[in-house]
Design brief:
mainly alpha, 2 domains, 8 helices, globular
Length: 134
């Protein structure tokens, strides 16, 4: 699993604070923030905001899908997809069109995903068990 440093929106200070509390990877972040109670406990020991922890956990969740790194996780989030559960319900062709339009407007990624990539993300998301509960 990638380092928590791969999560967009996480400052160096916040990452250092998480590392001090044994959250060094996206996998560890998911384990320590899977439930509302987990996020509240992590917020309590780190002093970080519970909503931010959920946002980072959602990005880490998307990054579990093969081929979705930090850059594509940002693109998906900008398209309103911030969890594996949401990604698995999307139509790949419609999603690709949405991502292309969004990137044309906001220029979020240098290289747009291909149709095969988006199909792989959706099918990969369908194979993953949900980790985060709300």
């Amino acid at each position: 699993m990638p380092s928590i440093d791969a999560i967009q929106g996480l400052s160096r200070t916040q990452a250092r604070n998480l590392r001090r509390n044994r959250v060094r990877t996206t996998e560890a972040l998911l384990k320590r923030s899977a439930t509302r109670a987990d996020r509240k406990a992590l917020a309590g020991i780190t002093g970080l905001d519970e909503k931010e922890i959920l946002s980072w956990a959602n990005r880490a969740d998307l990054m579990r899908v093969k081929g979705v790194g930090e850059e594509y996780a940002d693109l998906l989030e900008a398209a309103g997809i911030d969890t594996v559960k949401e990604l698995r319900r999307r139509n790949p062709n419609s999603l690709l069109r949405q991502l292309v339009e969004l990137n044309d407007k906001k220029n979020l990624v240098r290289r747009l995903p291909t149709e095969d990539m988006v199909e792989g993300w959706v099918s990969g998301a369908k194979k993953l068990e949900p980790v985060i509960s709300y």
